[in-house]
Structure formats: structure tokens, C-alpha cells
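> run fold L-fucose/L-arabinose isomerase family protein
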Amino acid sequence: MNNKATLGVIIGNRDFFPDRLVSEARTDIIALFNKLNINPIMLTEQESKLGGVETFRDAQRCADLFKKHQEEISGIIVFLPNFGDERGVAETIKLSGLNVPVLVQAYPDELNKLDVARRRDSWCGKISVCNNFYQYGIKYTLTDSHVIHPSNPLFTEDLLNFVAVCRVVKGLRKVRIGAVGARPGGFNTVRYSEKILQRNGISVTTVDLSEILGNANKLTKDHAEVKAHLDKVLAYAPAGKTPDEALIQIAKLDVVLNHFMEDNSLDATAIQCWTSLQQNYGCNVCTSMSIMSENMLPSACEVDVTGTLTMYAMQLASGSPSALVDWNNNYADDENKCVLFHCGNWAKSFLPDIEISNAPILGTTVGVENTYGALSGRTPASPLTYGRISTDDPKGVIKAYFGEGNLTDDALNTFGNRAVAQIPDLQGLMQYVCRNGFEHHVVMNASKTAGILKEALGNYMGWEIYQHA
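> ok
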């Protein structure tokens, strides 16, 4: 994922504070942004006094600048090298019309520099700026420390987390998801509201599974695209004992799914699998889904649209692939560990021992020979962020939960895609999931990004968020 970000920058100023504080802040900002590969959009020192924002005229100039770059700017950061003018800062954002996340930073004073020549009062100024944001209805993010210098490594962490929040918000406000096929009849758990999603900028494009399978059946093994996609599949994962005819079926389906995504400019998919694909086409779609997820085009099975939405959100937060999993089994008598499992569609970032295989459980009803394309592999120890977005139709809202833990290397003798998760107060989490009507599907990501997701989805998207401690 390209982590290049463009942020609008406002340097707040008040004229009875030393001018040099604004000039020093400008130097600090440029150095930090260059180091982190962030593109700043801010007034020059010729467009306002030292490039700061203080008067209403300054606010107009800065707002006009932001409007010219509105397609690029994913967030705005307010720097307060001194108290700043809270009206000028708030009016800049209001006049710009940008509906993006806003981070508020304030410089710390030094005990031996509280004289007129170096006094900042940014501690107080930040409270005033936030008060004005609250009055204006502007949503904003705070640094962990009330005041912090831009050169402090902890501010770098604040800033990078904010950039991730901006990515999540920008991405979710325009995401396009493809729903391939009907929800499996036995899976009421993956029902969702398209209308609630659309109100939040999330579009769902549907297609009947018969169209996908019909177009796949029109292709032959000699078709150039089929050959190219077969090569792609074989380069992606060892074929194991998968028969050649099954590999060709997988490749044909992959061609058609890719066309569907390209034709509709989709960012993610949710695909009907259980059990129509096996009965009517003769293979699993897991390998194609894994390839898409690995390539940052997340794909969830069982037409779990809000599941793939969660995958996409986590991917935006972390910059790495996500996987849809089942809260599946207890791990012996350890109350803070459980087994995560699915037939086999996880991105290969989670599966160092990846192999194309079959789905034994599904095979008991449709025949194992019709389930090739499922992947086998064990996820090793890594950081873990887990969570789930869901539409709560009776309430008319989108809700979600997120938390962090770890994936472990504990012994696990089973098949499919599998992992062992260790989560603090797992029993309390399961109580929350069950009492609040969440699905049995959850999403995992090898990161520690629950706080980013809570800020992006709760503060800026306005969804109901629970973060498990």
C-alpha cells in the first residue's frame, strides 16, 4: 500500500507572542514531513505573516488553498507553537468545506523560557481551539500528550496513527464492494442492510452467481487468459495434490471474477461459496479470494459484505492484508485462548506453509473432489488486531467492536486455515459478542491498530464502537 499522504497544515499564531516561534515551527514541520514522506499543503511566508493563520483574512487564504487541493488532502493538522488564534483556526476549516480528520498539536513550554521572549501558552491555547471546534461542529483528534514537541518520537507515532485514521476514513467513504451470489440459505448471520451502508458512502454492487459460473464455463483451458491466470495461481501457492482439471476450473473462475471487479471498479468482494459453487461448478473459490486479499482487494466468503468491509477497514489502518475467520473453538481449558479457523481463503501473508488443498468438512456433503481450491496453512505467532463491523438493522446504525491480542505458536493439530489467538479477557469479549448480536465471523490483521480503527470509525464515521481492553 502506498503510504504517501497529503495533509493540510495550519500554524496558529497570535501577534503578541514572539514571531520566531512560528518560524521555528515551520522548520520543524517541513523537516518532520520530509522524513515521514508526508506532503504538506500550507501557506507560504509571503501569503500571510510567517505563513501562520491568525486573522480572518489569513483563514480565507488558507481555506482557498485547501480547496484547491481538496482531492489530495486526506486530513488537516493544526500546529500551535503559541496560544494561537482559535477563531482563525476554526474558520479556516469551516471555510474550506473539507470534511476530513483534524489533528491538534500544541508545543510544550520550557520552565526556563517562560519570559516574554519565549513564552508559548500553547497548553491553554489548545483547549481554546478544541472548544471552538466543538462549537463549530468540527470533529478532531488529540495527541496522547496534551503538549508535545514535533521532534519527540511519541509525536511521530501520533502523526503516523493520524495518517492511518485519515486513510481509513477516506477509504470507507467511497468503498465499492461486490456481492457475488446470494447469501447461503443457512447463514442468517451474514445478513446486512445495503441502505444503511449506502448512507455511509459504502456501495454494494450485486451479481448473480449464475452469471459468474456461466461466463466461467464458456472459457476453455486453451484460452489465453485462462493460461495466464493458471500460471498466476501456480506461482502463488504449491498445487499439492490438486488435480489439473480442478486447477483449470479455479483459473477460469479467477478470470471472470477479475473481469467483474475491473468492470465495476470494486475495492473488495464477498462471494457465495457454501455450497452452490461446489455443487454447480466443482471447486472452491478460496485460492482466488486469497490472491485478491493478498493484493489488497479483500474478499470474504458466504457473501459476508460487512465482513469484507471490516477486512478493508483493517487493511487501510495497517497497510497489510486482513483475513476473515471464524471464532471457532476453545483451546483446551485456557480461557484466554481460542482457535481461529476457515476452510481456506486467508491471504498468504498469514500462511508461510500455504498449499492448495480441499475442504474436508464441506466435502462430507458435496464430495471432497468438488472442494479443491481451498488452501491449507497454519498462521504463526504475530501481533493481532481483531474486530467486526455490522449493520444493526433494528437500530438503524452501523456498529463494530475491535481489540488486540496475539497469535501464538501453540500446538494445533487440524486442517484448513488455522491459528491460535490469545486475547485478554476473552470470555468477557465472547459475552459482549453474543449479547450484542454480532456474527460468528471476525476479521484478523497482523498489527496493533484497534485504537486507529476506534478513532476513525467512532469519531469520524460516527459508528457505535466498542474497544475491548
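The chain has two domains: 5-172, 176-467.
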